[in-house]
Design the sequence.
């Protein structure tokens, strides 16, 4: 993961990620729901409106990025920042990692920051990000392990509009 304008030292070291300032995250969670009535005896099963999207939720170990994340909570910038999240998987021959899923948040703000820990363990941070626009790039793997670029699906919340993707 990386945040616009933040250059974390000693963060993620995976080759192939563009730019600097990447740091590791342990988990990612995001989703959306569409209200569709499914009433017994009602054959319409009507769509109730727009999609409701969740915040992006991440967890990570306390590390060199922690100071930057806490500062981002207190000072998100006038319009938020661009946040990029990259998922990698090991190369089949063990020679490194390949990129297979990417998320980009525009005008993102850190809206929740929590730290938990217990005696003898590495403290964990949980953060939540709001955003104005979300884009996801899904790559896919062919037989034999070759990863091919997939499409980008992007959605703008204020406009309530799918900007790119399978329509």
Sequence:
């Amino acid at each position: 993961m990386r945040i616009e304008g933040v250059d974390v030292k000693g963060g993620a070291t995976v080759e192939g990620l563009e730019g600097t300032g990447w740091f590791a995250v342990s988990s990612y969670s995001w989703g959306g729901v569409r209200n569709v009535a499914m009433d017994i005896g009602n054959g319409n099963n009507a769509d109730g409106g727009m999609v409701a999207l969740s915040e992006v939720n991440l967890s990570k170990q306390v590390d060199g990025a922690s100071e930057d994340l806490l500062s981002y909570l207190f000072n998100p910038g006038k319009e938020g920042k661009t946040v990029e999240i990259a998922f990698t998987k090991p190369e089949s021959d063990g020679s490194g990692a390949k990129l297979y899923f990417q998320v980009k948040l525009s005008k993102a703000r850190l809206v929740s920051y929590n730290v938990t820990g217990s005696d003898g363990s590495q403290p964990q941070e949980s953060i939540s990000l709001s955003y104005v626009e979300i884009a996801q790039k899904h790559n896919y793997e062919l037989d034999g392990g070759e990863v091919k670029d997939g499409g980008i699906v992007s959605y703008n919340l204020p406009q309530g509009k799918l900007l790119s993707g399978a329509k």
User: Anything to note?
Assistant: The first helix runs from residue 66 to 74.
